[in-house]
Structure formats: structure tokens, C-alpha cells
Amino acid sequence: MDKTKKQEQTSTHKIGIYLWIWGLLFVLSFFSYMVDWYQFQGMLRWSLILFFMFLKAGLIMAFFMHLYWERYALVNVLLWPMTAIACFIFLMVAEFEYTVFTRFFYFVVGG
Amino acid sequence: MSEDFNDNKTIQAQSSEAISGGGSGIATDADYVRPAEVADQDLYHGHSFITKWIFCQDAKVIGVQYFLLATFTGIIGLILSWLMRLQLGFPELVPFMTAEHYYQFVTMHGMIMVVYFLTALFLGGFGNYLIPLMVGARDMVFPYLNMVSFWSFFVAVGVLLASFFVPGGPTGSGWTLYPPQAILEGTPGSGWGIMLMCISLILFVAGFTMGGLNYLITVLQARTRGMTLMRMPLTVWGIFTATVLAMLAFPALLVGALMMSLDNVLGTSFFMPTILKAGEVLEYGGGSPILFQHLFWFFGHPEVYIVALPAFGIISDLISVHARKNIFGYRMMVWAIVGIGALSFFVWAHHMYVSGMNPWFGFFFATTTLIIAVPTAMKVYNWILTLWRGNIRLNTVMLWCLGFIVTFVNGGITGIFLGNVSVDVPLSDTYFVIAHFHMVMGIAPLMVIMGAVYHWFPLVAGRFLDEKLGKWHFWLTFLGAYSIYFPMHYLGFIGVPRRYFEMYDSPYVTSAVGMNEFISLAAFIVGAAQFILIYNIIKTLKTGKPAGHNPWQACSLEWLTPTVPPEHGNWGDRLPTVHRWAYDFSVPGAKEDFITQTTPPSEVAHTKVEKT
Amino acid sequence: MHVGIIFFLVILGSVLFHIFTPWYWTDVASNWGGMDDTITLTFWIGGGVFIAVCLFMVYCVFKFSYKKERKAEYKPEDKKLEKILTWATTLGVAALLAPGLIIWNQYVNVPKNAIEIDVMAWQWGWQYRLPGEDGKLGTTKVVNINDDNPFGINLDDPFGNDDVMIQSDVINLENNRPVKILLRSVDVLHNWYVPQFRAKMDAVPGIVTYYWFEPNKTGEFEVLCAEYCGVGHYAMRGGVEVQDKQDYDNWLQQQETFSDLIAKQKILENEKTKLAKK
Amino acid sequence: MSDLKIEGYEFKPGFKGMAKDTGSDQTMFKGVHWGKAMMWIFLLSDTFIFSCFLISYMKGRGSTIIDWPNPSEVFGLHVFGVDVPLLLIAIMTFVLITSSGTMALAVKYGYEKNKKMCGWLILATAIGGLTFVGMQAFEWGKLIHEGVRPWENPFGAPQFGSFFFMITGFHGTHVSIGVIFLFIYAYKTFAGHYDEGKRGWFTTMKGDYVEIEILGLYWHFVDLVWVFIFAFFYLW
Ligand code: HEA
Ligand code: HEA
Ligand code: CUA
Ligand SMILES: [Cu+2]
Question: How many domains is chain C built from?
């Protein structure tokens, strides 16, 4: 195992890129904190939260976890299963809306 | 410690200069296989009895350990099913059987059979034994982790069985463990029993994850030279895909079990709405029982394919070897396995059509569920098309294969009934469902296990199992099991609900009593017939006909080890190189009716072998 | 040889069993005959495929069993055949799915004129509530449930007062009138299932679920609980009596409403206080 | 990684490369160490665990008809006479990101075989993690003091407490396990186990700097999960 490894892994990335990402993460975290600070509400809040969240997650995965430099075979294996999670999320949104509807309708407001 | 490793020797044998005909200069040579990418694995060789047989790091030993423990739990499950059948067929014979007992038995039977028997046997047992051999690896890539995996399973089984002896007994909540009922009084084992069940499941998942990582990385990263994914035997494909499903599905079970334990112990209300019990309102409120069902089936549906896919894979290999014909449409088979695996994450709520979930889900899940029938159908067609114009050896192994096809297609078709949402409405939660899943999960994969045992026993033990006993075993099991479950569908049509301790004064009973007695009788016979196999194994270990090398004239790697049974490290000094797929049977122009995977093209230049 | 014959007999036996079985579904007593039709259709298509596959297998066993001198065919793939089979199967599946979805669409959409019935389940029994003259059921809460208010009706909900309460596990239904069953449970999951009506749905604590049907045969039917709910599950029975309009109206007349109950309770209390004063 | 070379194998970028890698023999993830591949797959599985937690949380929060407490207030701190919303959480986020940065650098120096830098950076990461766990303990203490329990919550829906303790607890367990390993690896780095390929205590496998990257993957994942928890639990 070690023989082939050694040649390949002597090449690393410049320290600058890590410092950059590091800085960006601080800035983005600060921004998402500001979303709360200024008490944005509604769609604006949601889209900002999600935007910063995905940006941060993306930076961590891509650079700190080196996914940006990995080959597509690995990247795709890791990302495709997320479609199942996405499906689960969408359906559970529909489910909680239905649940809360029946609760309000039959236990609170009636009609 | 250093003498425990023999790395120097093997690494040298593996370095690229030592490869005959190798080197990039002669790349035009038909036999050329590129040099090894990774250095040979160094293995820890145990010396004492303990490191060799108990805390052993050899995947083959671990596989056998898994196999034996899973069979042991399976026999417990079988005994429980006998007790259930006694109650259902001849209640007067078991006056000691209360409803509590009955429900505990049903629950433990279901859970043991699905998780601790089939999953452990296919993935832990066959996976461990066969994956490294079939892909040409020396062992699993993380032998230590693999060992821990088995012992976690061992502890999980221990905890599970311990629940029979705690106050209140094991949980009787049904294997689906639905809250609120699972953790409320009124269900047997709602205190200790369900707790231990959750703990045992969590241990199982943890242990399985360790094993699963091994299987996956071994297949992905430790294949031998020349072994591409599209040359792997379908057995490996089936187990591999099932492992992927398990790694992604078990988390949902883990989360569900954890949250339910918290509801039980801390009094949180994840799954618990306001509940009135014996005139008093319990301190719960606001939770959602349906959420648990979603979590459970997000795990549960992939789980049923976790036990089905290895069966699909193994059966393909057995049929191909014993019909002396390549598996028909290998590519399609691989894609079907992968497709079924992927789709199985999008169909879970077909178990919940009448659960009171958002009714619009019915459309979505009925569609996805029926779509999954298409790749499955392709697999069925390819099995029978492999028989077509084959040269079928009607030995015991092949009999199990034929039995599998009949029972699987039967169970699959009833799955189509249930998947079609409005057809499921009258049939859900009746014996039709019981019949469906025993046919497709209880019997069909069992046929595969049996076939696999008869097929690979000569490899593991070096001797053939007795054919005559084998045939008895097969016919009793197949005909018996078919006559248990085929009529059972009709109980479902009448409307007999599942999980009924007895039907008592219901008008439905009268006509069903006779059938229940018949089913129970068949169940006793089938169960007893399994002991033929155990007898056969014990007898054969001593007196069986020696098998020698590659007794079935198969092509795949596991039969090509230098020693039979294979030793630790599998391949002696040098790893095999692979030049073709695992199914070159009856190639026109070849001397024999099979060409092994390691045969270089130059040796069979005159034949019409297709490039794979 | 005998292998093929036995497998053939198994298939033949299955078919014969299906034809001659004395165990089959009860006569449908609701509008969901469409479900039976879909099952029948599935039987034809599915059963046909099952028989075809198995007979093909039996044929292969007869025709191609081992002979030393014969060599099997070598044909890894047949793209065209596989394509045909894929499409044929897709077609078959679609043919099954379409009617299934159409019926499901009817199942989840309740007709406007359906009468709502509140089915309340507990371990281990049933009771029912019908809307009164206003045609509407009052809202409920589990915490309100006590001897004076067996259904947990919210006292400040005006719709609740005239609700008809049937504290019995048998309910009467009017023939040929669609009912919307509203299911509610105070403890665990249950399922109000009458095999003859075909329809079912779980009662889930914490929410209200529903389904509908239109009974079209008079008579008595047994209600089975079809979702596991603890040790009493198998004994959790109820009854339905489907009657013609006149009988049904007579029956309805005799039932108590929530306000009756409250009034009765008041009288009782008054008497008690009177007694105490004396 | 980017300029990998394997004898007899020609690399292609992008999806073409993916098809080629997948179709090749021996390995599918070219040049990826077994342990690293394992960690990735494990993290994928772990992602599903956290996803299930968060999905359950979403379902639970969405379907309760009792008001959900406003996290911005609940997690606010009263400092210097003013109420600062989410202050503690903000600091925790910054601490965790800091430790993620040090970890990334540790991995880099590890590959450069810079034992000293690598070791110190791992140690810094461990201390960052420890700080995080400490602050989480403080936060738990504060909430418990205010009467929030897994089964009840004075500010509204009881599920708030349940999900809060469960999810942050599970995440905190991950962090704690990570911290333990960070300390062990810091020791192993300083002791030179990765330079001389000393065999592991249990696994008996030879040490290699790639283990630092594997640990790094885990640590970054913990940070990654926190990003999601931060967004969904504290900001929603
Ligand atoms: C190995 C396990 C296994 C397998 C492979 C399957 C396969 C299938 N199952 Fe089954 N199922 C279970 C195990 C399994 N099931 C278990 C354990 C339960 C009950 C759990 C419980 O509640 O306790 C269950 C319950 C269950 C339900 C819920 C019933 C209910 O509770 O109301 C449903 C509903 O959709 C369903 C559907 C299907 C379908 C559509 C398939 C399909 O994958 C089948 C596909 C196969 C074929 C269709 C046959 C071959 C095809 C042809 C020959 C082609 C021609 C066919 C046509 C054109 C129709 N199953
Ligand atoms: C793989 C799964 C599996 C298997 C093999 C079986 C096998 C059997 N099952 Fe089971 N069963 C379930 C899974 C399984 N079951 C599940 C999930 C449930 C639902 C539980 C619930 O509702 O919660 C259930 C429920 C269930 C019920 C319904 C109870 C009820 O709802 O009230 C009944 C009733 O008859 C029943 C009967 C039987 C019988 C008679 C057998 C057998 O006797 C049939 C014959 C079996 C064999 C021939 C296999 C035996 C072999 C071995 C044990 C190992 C030997 C191996 C070697 C030596 C290598 N089972
Ligand atoms: Cu109520 Cu089952
Ligand atoms: Cu399913």
C-alpha cells in the first residue's frame, strides 16, 4: 500500500487556498448570523439561510475534505445517494403539512 | 510480533517486474494485464487457538462464524414459528399459550428471521466467505474491524435472546415495533423487552456497519488484476449492492430505535401523541406515530431487498454453473440489481397505504413500486433464458434453483397485487400479506441459501454433501413450504387479519379452521426437514466423498485457490490474474465446457469466446 | 424426468386450487367492487405470467437436462429479446397500475353528500358519533374525555352539542348512502375493517384519518381490528348493521345526543344537591 | 488526488474519467487509500443518520400545533446589560470552524511529512474541539437551568427540548469521539509513528500519514453537520 502512495501524496496544495477558504467560512458564518441579528423573516430568511448553509457546506466538502480534487468516481458515489434523502425531505414536508392540517381541522377549528 | 506477518514474501511476488509477460513495452500482448496498483496486503496470522478460531481475522473463518450463529438464531425463529402454528392450527394442544406469548413469538420470529437470520447469513456469512475469494483478494481489507463486526453481532444476538429472560419477556409489538403500542402497557414486553430489542438492533447496526465497510471497500478497492466490476460474479454484485442498501437504510432504523428508546425511558414525545390509558391521560403529547412508520419503512423496504439481492446474485451463479451455460444477459442482470437497489429507496411507503399518511402519497408510491417490478422481471426472464438451451444438471443445487424461481415469481406477483395501492386496501394486514412475504422472503431466499450450501460445501469442507439426503430435503421443503403459503393467500382473501391470536366466534373462522390445521401440519414437516440438512452436514464432514479442485467445473475464482479448502491469505504466493468474466461455459471450440477466469486468452485463441 | 413432472403438477395444482377453492372473498357489500375487478385483472395478468414462466421452466427441464454429448448454447446477450421483454413487462405493469390509480383517486376523494361518522377506537373497543341536525361534528380533544364526555367533545364548540353518541360497538348505517369514516384513536393504532366493504384505514392517535364507502347490501357485518394494537387486538371486534332508510331513521331517533347527555347529567347533579340539602 | 500516476493506467478527467475508472480493474477510486475510502463511505452512512434526525425534527416541528419557541431568544445571552441573540452559538460556530481550519492545515503538513507542524496543529484542533464540547455543556446547563427538559419545555412545544438534546447530544458525541482520537493521533504524530510505519495497537496495520487525512475527513464532517444544525435548529 505505502509504495505507490508515497509518490502521489508528496504533492499538496498551497497553504494559501486553505487560508482563503478558512476566511470565507468565517465570513459566511458571520453573514448567516446576521440573518438572525437583523431578524429577516419569511422567504428571505429561508433563502438566505439555505444559501449560506449550502455555500459553507460546499466549501468544507470541496476544499477541506478535498472533494474538489478527488476524481468523479468518488464524488458521484458520495452525492447520488442524497437524492433519496431529498425525496424523503420532500415527502415529509407534505406529510407534516397534512398532519398539522388534520390536527387543526379536527381538534381546533372544526367545520 | 513481527513473525505474525509474512509481508516480505508476498510483496515481492507481487511487484510488477515479477509478472510474466508484463511490462508496458509489450502492451499489445493479448495476455497483458497491467501491474498491481496496490501493494499486497499484509495479514496478521494467528497462532494460538484463540487468534485462529475465535477472535480470528480471517474472513473465511468469520464467514463461517456468522453462518453458524445466524443458523442458530434461525432455528430459534423456526421453533417460534412452530409454536405459533400450533396455536393457530391446534389451539387445544397448547393450553399454556396466552395471547401475550403468541405476540412475543410472532415478534421475535419476524425480527429474528429477517435481521438476525437472513441478513446476517447472506451478508455476514456468504459475504465474508465469498467476496475476497471471488474478487481475488487475500482477505477483507480491514480484518480487525471484520472480527469486531462478528463479535458485535454476537453480543447483539446475546442481548436479543436475553430479552426472553427479563421481567415481562421479549417485546410483543410485532417486528415493525410501531409506537405508541410498542412502549405502552397492553403490549407484552413494553418495558424491558422493547428496550433490549432497541439495544440489540443498535448493536447489530453498529456491527454491521463495520462489516459492511469491509465488503464495500474490498469490492471497490481490492480486486485482483484484471478483475473489472463487469467481470465480477453476480454473487458479488448482489451482496455488494445489498451492502450499499444496508449502509444507507440502517441509519433510519437506528434513529427510529433511538428515538423510541428515548420516548420509553426519558418520556420524550417524538412518536407519542396525547394518550388516554385506563382513564388517565399519560404525560405525552404532540408526537407523530406515523413518523416512526416512515423511518421504519425507509429502512424496512430496502431491508427486504437486502435479503433479496444476495439471493438474486447467488442464484444466478448457481443456475449458470449447473446449466453449463453463461448467465443470459449479464449486463442486464447487473443493471437490474443496481436499479432495484436504487429504486428501493423510493418505494417505502407502500407498506403504509392504509396507515393514515397523506393520502396523495398513494399515487407516488404505487407508481414507483410497480416500476420496480420491471428490472425484477428482467432478472426472472434471464434466469429461465439461462436454462433455455443449457445442459442442465438436475442435481440438488439445481433443484433448489428451480424451487426458487417458482416461489419467487409467485411471491413477486402477489407483491404486484399489494403494490397497486387500491388493491392493497382490502388485502393489507391480512394473511395475504403474510403469504406474500413468506413466499418471496421466507421461502425463496431460503431456497437460495440451501442451494448455496450444497454448492459451496465442497469448497468450505472439501467434501460433497450427500445427494440423496439432499433430494429428500429439497422435496420436503419445497412442496411443504409451497403448501403452507399458497393456500394462505386465500385466507387473506376471506379477510382474516394477520396477528390474530385466534379468530374465536367470528363467522370467518369456520371455513378456515381446516386450512389452518393443514398449514400447521405442513409447517411442522417443513421445519423438521431442515434437520436432514444438519444431519447431512455432520455425516458428510466425516464420510463425504472428497471433492478435490473445482468439483463443479466452475469458472469463478473461488474454486481456483491453490489449496482446497483455501488457506488464510487464499492465494499462496501469487494473486491470480483475471482475463474474462465468470461465465465462459460451453464456449464453441473449447476443449472443455468451461474456461476459468484465470485462463489467459492465448490459451484459448482458437475458440469463439466473446470479449468481456 | 420426474422433476419436471412434479413441478408441472405444482403449477397445475395451483391453478386447480384457485378454480375450486372454497375459500374466497366474501360478497362485496359496498361500492368498492372496482377493487375486486382490479384484483381479478391482476390475477389474469399476474397469474398468466406466473404460469408462463413456470411452464417455460418445466419445458427447459424436460428438453435440456444433462446429456454428456450435448453442449449448451453460447450466447451472452440478445439485445433485441431483452428489449422486447422489457417493453412487454412495462406495458403489463402499466395496464395494472392505471385502474389501480383510478380507483385510488375515487378512494381519497369523498363525495359531497357523504355523512360523516366519527369512529373512536381505544384498547380494545369502538364507539361512534354521528353529526346531529347541523350535519357537522364538533371538535374533540383526548384530554376532555371522561364519564360525562365520553368523546372528548370541546364544550365550547357549538357544533358538538347535537352530536349523536353511540356508546356501543355496533353502528347502523343507511343503505346506499355514502359514509365518510373519520377515524380517531385515544391510545394506539387500530384499524376499522369490514371485509365485505373492502375498505380500511388505520386509526392513528394524534390525528384523524378517513376513508369512505357506500354500503349497498343490508344486513349485519362484523368489524375486525386490522392493525396490531396489543394483546387484545384479536378480540377487538365491532359490528355494523346496514339498514334501509326507514329502519335507519327509526334507529337514529332513539339515540342520545350530547346535549341530552349533558342535560341528564345536570338533572342527576341537581338531584344529588337536593338530596344533600335534605 | 490531482496529479496521480499509476503505472499502465491513463487518467481522464470528468465523467469520461469516471466511466474509465469505474470500468477498470483493481480499484474504482484510483489512488485512494483503503482507509480513506472507508471513511468516506462511513461518513455517507453517518450523513443518513443525521439526515434522519433532522428530517424527524422537521416533521416533528412542522406537525405540532403548539408554538415552537423562538431559538434566537432561547439561545440568546445577556452580556454587558444587553441581550445578544444566539451569541453562544455564534461563538461555538466560530470555534468549530477554527478547529476545522487547523485540521485542514494539519493534513497538509502531514503529507509534507512535517511532523512538528502537523502535531501541533492536531493538538490545536483537539483543543478547539474540547472548547466546543465545553461550551455545549455550558449551553445544556443553561437550558436545563431554565427548565428545558427532554420531555418538557417552558417556552412552548415539548418537542423542542427533545430534539434539541437529542440532536446536539448526538453531534456532541461525535465531537467528543473526535477529540479523543485527535489527542491519540497528536501523540502518535509526535512519537513519529507515521514516519517509521509503526503498527497500530489494535489493527496491527502500518502507520501512515494518510491516517491524518482520514481523521481530518471525520473532523470536517463534524463541522459540516454543525453547519446544518446551525441553519436548521438555530436559525429556522
Ligand atoms: C425478500 C423480500 C421481499 C421482496 C423481494 C418483496 C418484493 C415485493 N413486494 Fe413485498 N414485502 C416483504 C418482503 C418482500 N417483498 C415483506 C417482509 C413484507 C411485509 C412486512 C410486514 O408488514 O411485516 C412485504 C409487504 C409488501 C407490501 C405491503 C403490504 C401491506 O402491508 O399492506 C407491498 C405493497 O406494495 C409489497 C410489494 C412488493 C412488490 C411490488 C415487490 C416486487 O419487488 C416484486 C417484483 C417481482 C415480480 C413482479 C415477479 C417477477 C416478474 C415477472 C415474472 C414479470 C411479469 C410481471 C408482471 C407484468 C406483473 N410487499
Ligand atoms: C425470512 C423470514 C421468515 C421465515 C423464514 C419465516 C418462516 C416461517 N414463518 Fe414467518 N414471519 C416472518 C418472517 C419469516 N417467517 C415475518 C417478518 C413475520 C411477521 C411478524 C410480525 O407480524 O410482526 C412472520 C409471521 C409469521 C406468521 C404470522 C403470524 C401472525 O400474523 O399472527 C406465521 C403464521 O403462520 C408465520 C409462519 C412461519 C412458518 C410456519 C415458517 C417456517 O416454518 C417455514 C419453513 C421455514 C424454513 C424451512 C426455514 C427454516 C430454516 C432454518 C431456520 C435454518 C436452517 C439453515 C441451515 C441449517 C443452513 N410467520
Ligand atoms: Cu385494535 Cu388491533
Ligand atoms: Cu416493501
Answer: 2
